[in-house]
Amino acid sequence: xxxxxxxxxxxxxxxxxxxxxxxxxxxxxxxxxxxxxxxxxxxxxxxxxxxxxxxxxxxxxxxxxxxxxxxxxxxxxxxxxxxxxxxxxxxxxxxxxxxxx
Length: 101
What we know:
By secondary structure, this protein is mainly alpha-helical. The protein has helices at 5-19, 23-30, 34-41, 49-59, 63-66, 73-82, 86-99. Helix 2 crosses helix 3. The N and C termini lie far apart (33 Å).
């Protein structure tokens, strides 16, 4: 796997939009300007490993996925669940609890 800054930026943007987060929210979390987030999303710049880890944790995906690796089944599941209404998430958690997970 070779790192592609454009792919990294696209993944950040896609995740941000899926989570309903703004560039301003990400910039505050990472301690950078909203312009820096925009540049990352456009593939104009990358970010530090420390910030990439923060992003992976924020979006509940693996660092491997953010850096260009294949999406893991858990990442795909979490991305789908994130977009569900809260009442559906609660029911889903109830089902998982009943199954012992």
